[in-house]
Amino acid sequence: MKTSEDRVIAAADTLGVSPSLLSRRFRDVRGVTSIQYLRGVRLQKARELLSGTDFTLQNIVEQCGYRSAFYLSRVFKASTGQSPSEYRAGSRCPVAPNLELVPWMGERCSVTSSCGMGELQPHPERGAIAGMG
Question: Span 108-132, mean pLDDT?
């Protein structure tokens, strides 16, 4: 499996520039190194798959380009403070488990109710419940 550094070297070779020049220019444009950017993209994809699918961790590892489930778990916990399974459990809506919860007014979950079953709140920007279009 290619590492992020291998991919940067291959991209630089394809573009006919040195890896250090490519990295500097990428950082100048994006504000982060290409490796940091790739890590962020992979983590975001892992978050989406954890909250929006029932894929196994191994399947998510394969789709996101991680070396192993152990490595993804370690990187994920360092980034989010939660293990992938904790994140998955906390990102599912207790009223409608197929919906992904969105932050609501700074809170982790927009589901509240005196009966404990919850009430879905509209997404503050899209005006729709997350996952419902």
Answer: 44
Domain 4-83 has CATH 1.10.10.60: yes
| 3-class secondary structure, 85 | helix
pLDDT at 20 over 60: yes
Q: Which of 89, 105, 109, 101 is nearest to 130 (CA)?
A: 101
**Quick one: tokens of 132?**
């419902």
Residue entry with tokens 């789709």 = 63
- Cα(16)–Cα(26) distance, integer angstroms: 15
Specify the pLDDT at position 92: 65
Q: For the chain, what are the domain ranges?
A: 4-83, 92-133
The arithmetic mean of pLDDT across residues 90-97, rounded, is 62
